[in-house]
Design brief:
This protein is an all-alpha fold. Helices cover 76% and strands 0% of the residues.
């Protein structure tokens, strides 16, 4: 089948006398770099066709004459479909070909962007934006599989957070792109629909790039398993190879309490992430009175800071806690709580510097826990044969939180004002700290 994972070729083993060790090392170096770069660029462009809508929300609201509740519905439909899709994609991706699975998802999502900006019906926009969410869900599960098959446990926290910064790079990149498009729109050079069709064109071209660049597992390239090559065994291994895929999922995901804990923690992380990112444009534009182009530029600060924020979190976890994520997550989440409160009280046109500083802090501090909780920690408490499914489950709960950040926070804002919305985000960070602390012993291998 088109998506089916490629079976092993005749393996090249480092221990074979006929094959020098440097040949295996050379092939691994080549393919690890190629896979990493391909997955990074690919997921970056996935976000070009996902987060391009956020800076354009005021224009969409004006064109379709919709209120804040309807905007919340638009966001929530995407997150519901994406969350369910990510869970389903995760279950299939463990047995799928990384290359074709990821490329087809990006291509299909990009095609929608070529025409969605020209729709003048809220119902059609909601339908196709939800369909976009379904195709978007095919992006990260194959990446999770690629990370655990091409990188060993002792190097995974750093590699995972570096690659996970691709979503932040994508959000930042499309923020700059949309800011430029909106500037051209204000000058009458292009229509605002370019916010959609230009990222769509970029996405179609990138999908072809993925088909050329990516491959499946190391064994499909004639290489040994990464754990054998690196002599680095995971905390949990699949000892019974006779288990079916469903039995693996049931044992190592659905009845794994630590996956459930991380899933709920990820739910609260996403409430914070999308609550602060998606609604910041409306908050700064409508409440604080900052102009449209400046809002788009401010919006890029959070993902910009998130790139080093996530990478530093992964490095610190590897460097000081032997890959354990709980300590750095607690530090990040504590600081994040105070940053959210500070942004609400001190942002505005009279405090431009403070507005930027708090947005940078929120962006920096949210990416660490998000990347570690839903990815690195999940890979440490399950077998690699189920990692896509585990990430699919944590991702599903994440987008339950994202759904709440849409319609849920919209109702909270309507009932209690923006103070209630940002208080909810701060409370979510505190709850997340408690949940993360519950995995303390397991991270030590106890």
């Amino acid at each position: 089948m088109f998506f089916k994972s490629i079976p092993p070729f005749k393996q090249i083993e480092p221990s074979e006398e006929k094959i020098p060790d440097h040949l295996v090392a050379k092939k691994f170096k080549h393919w690890r770099w190629r896979m990493f770069i391909g997955m990074y660029i690919g997921y970056t462009i996935f976000y070009f066709t996902r987060k391009n809508i956020s800076p354009a929300l005021p224009l969409i609201s004006e064109k379709l004459d919709i209120d804040i509740i309807q905007l919340g519905i638009l966001s929530s439909v995407f997150y519901v479909v994406y969350g369910i899709g990510k869970f389903i994609s995760g279950l299939f991706a463990d047995r799928a070909n990384i290359r074709t699975f990821m490329a087809v998802g990006l291509f299909a999502a990009s095609i929608i962007h070529l025409f969605i900006g020209y729709l003048d019906s809220l119902y059609l926009v909601v339908f196709f934006w939800g369909l976009n969410g379904a195709f978007q869900s095919m992006g990260f599960p194959p990446i999770a599989k690629g990370l655990v098959h091409w990188f060993s446990p002792k190097e995974r926290a750093t590699k995972w957070t570096i690659l996970s910064s691709s979503h932040t790079a994508g959000t930042f990149g499309v923020g700059l792109l949309v800011a430029g498009i909106l500037n051209l729109y204000n000058k009458g050079i292009v229509g605002w629909e370019a916010v959609f069709y230009i990222p769509g064109i970029i996405g179609c071209l990138t999908a072809l790039f993925l088909l050329i660049t990516l491959r499946d597992r190391p064994v499909a390239q004639g290489l040994p398993e990464i754990e054998d090559y690196k002599n680095d065994k995971p905390i949990i291994e699949l000892t019974d190879t006779s288990l079916s895929h469903w039995e693996i999922l049931k044992k190592y995901i659905f009845t794994n309490k630590y996956i459930w804990i991380l899933s709920f923690a990820n739910m609260f992380i996403y409430i914070i992430r999308f609550g602060t990112l998606d609604w910041a444009t409306i908050f700064l534009y409508d409440v604080k009175g900052i102009d449209q182009v400046s809002v788009a530029i401010f919006w890029t600060l959070m993902p910009l800071a998130g790139i080093p924020g996530g990478i530093i979190a992964g490095y610190l976890a590897d460097r000081f806690w032997n890959g354990r994520c709980v300590p750095i997550n607690v530090i990040y989440l504590t600081l994040l709580t105070f940053s959210i409160i500070g942004f609400y009280y001190y942002s505005g046109p009279d405090n431009v510097i403070l507005t930027g500083v708090f947005l940078l802090l929120i962006g920096f501090l949210i990416d660490g826990p998000q990347n570690l909780i839903s990815g690195v920690q999940a890979s440490r408490v399950t077998v690699k044969e189920a990692i896509s499914g585990a990430c699919g489950m944590t991702g599903f709960f994440g987008y339950v939180g994202a759904t709440f950040s849409g319609i849920g926070l919209a109702y909270i804002t309507q009932a209690f004002g923006w103070k209630g919305m940002y208080a909810t985000c701060a409370l979510s960070a505190i709850i997340c700290i408690i949940l993360v602390m519950m995995t303390w012993k397991r991270e030590k291998g106890v």
